[in-house]
Specification:
membrane, alpha+beta, 8 helices, binds 2-acetamido-2-deoxy-beta-D-glucopyranose, SUR7_domain, elongated, SUR7/Rim9-like_fungi
């Protein structure tokens, strides 16, 4: 019996739970919504363009804009939130591993003198169907929203930059791979968990060694998944912020998701250290046993 093997078993169990949460966060409305990979803030889409084209009546946006201002009789600033709404576009689109969700910021999308940034919350309207390895295509999602709303505005009218989708397309292979990597990581962590339970019984160095190997594989798998997902988050946000700025969309990085996935990786690292320690202890005990036998 090796009660100290309980520690790596518990650490593995923790890592397993965290990895499952990474995979399933946001998989349905309101379930760990803030653990998104990235959130596209489209609440001010078209704001800049409307500002510059409000005299140019060729752009269908102008009519839409005039209608909104007429009906509200308001300053552009107050109307801004309503542009996305009038276009049928949601305030935000948050990307998760298995789906994306959309909805509106409540009470309003932009902080002002009475509304603090920290008191703005996401109100999720719905989520896409859960799909393993879906392709995140912002252009198609927004086009669909514009079509469904029936307004006579296209993404072209909004000066939608093609570079955004090009940048995201470059990441889609990685984006799809991360689902597979999380599944592999979860598999290895589960094996490492079973293996450390097995390590509870015989106390030879062989079990410590096998456990070390298995947990090393699990660590590499979850580490690779975390590195990849971090790359997708950082690169994706950079691309969207770089090209989206001029049409009023921005991307927020999923800090909480990164914390979750790296915490799982950290736990598996501790498991490895633990098994190295067990191996050395086993080594010392073995030596001591040999000395007493022969000495
Ligand atoms: C909108 O236009 C006004 C006047 O033309 C300008 O002062 C303001 O900075 C513009 N706002 C944006 C966000 O471009
Ligand atoms: C701040 O924003 C909220 C929500 O959009 C709005 O109800 C409120 O009137 C705004 N306050 C000011 C001072 O603009
Ligand atoms: C959404 O984006 C706009 C500008 O693009 C920004 O002013 C606003 O603070 C953002 N809203 C949230 C909730 O982050
Ligand atoms: C969230 O949105 C729904 C409609 O989609 C609305 O009925 C509800 O009041 C909103 N919740 C908050 C807190 O604004
Ligand atoms: C989502 O799934 C439902 C049934 O499960 C289906 O009716 C619907 O068309 C799907 N939606 C999309 C966008 O694929």
């Amino acid at each position: 019996m090796r009660p100290s093997a309980l520690i790596p078993a518990l650490l593995c169990a923790g890592a397993l739970v965290l990895s499952f949460l990474c995979l399933f966060a946001g998989q349905k409305k309101g379930f760990m919504e803030n653990y998104h990979l990235l959130t596209l803030n489209t609440s001010r889409i078209g704001y800049n363009i409307i500002n510059t084209t409000s005299e140019n009546s060729n752009n269908p946006l102008t009519n839409l804009f005039n209608n909104i201002t007429d009906s509200l009789g308001n300053e552009l600033n107050d109307v801004a939130g309503d542009i996305a709404e009038a276009l049928g576009i949601d305030d935000f689109y948050s990307v998760h591993i298995l789906d994306y969700c959309y909805g509106d910021y409540t009470p309003g999308p932009v902080a002002n003198s009475t509304l603090k940034q920290s008191s703005i919350h996401k109100n999720v309207t719905g989520c896409s169907n859960r799909t393993a390895m879906y392709e995140f295509n912002v252009t198609r999602i927004l086009e669909q929203a514009l079509n469904d709303s029936g307004v006579d505005v296209t993404l072209g009218d909004l000066n939608w930059p093609d570079d955004i989708q090009k940048g995201i397309d470059g990441l889609n292979a990685l984006f799809k791979a991360q689902f597979v990597l999380y599944c592999i990581a979860i598999g290895f962590i589960a094996i490492a968990l079973l293996s450390s339970l097995w390590g509870l019984f015989p106390s030879g160095r062989l079990t410590a060694c096998c456990n070390f190997m298995v947990s090393l594989l699990a660590f590499l798998a979850i580490g690779l998944a975390s590195a990849l997902v971090t790359a997708v988050i950082v690169k994706g946000s950079d691309v969207i912020n770089k090209y989206g700025k001029e049409i009023g969309i921005e991307s927020h990085k999923g800090g909480k998701f990164m914390a979750l996935t790296w915490a799982a990786t950290g736990l598996m690292f501790l498991v490895i250290l633990d098994w190295i320690f067990e191996f050395c202890i086993g080594h010392r005990k073995h030596k001591a046993a040999t000395y007493t036998k022969h000495g």
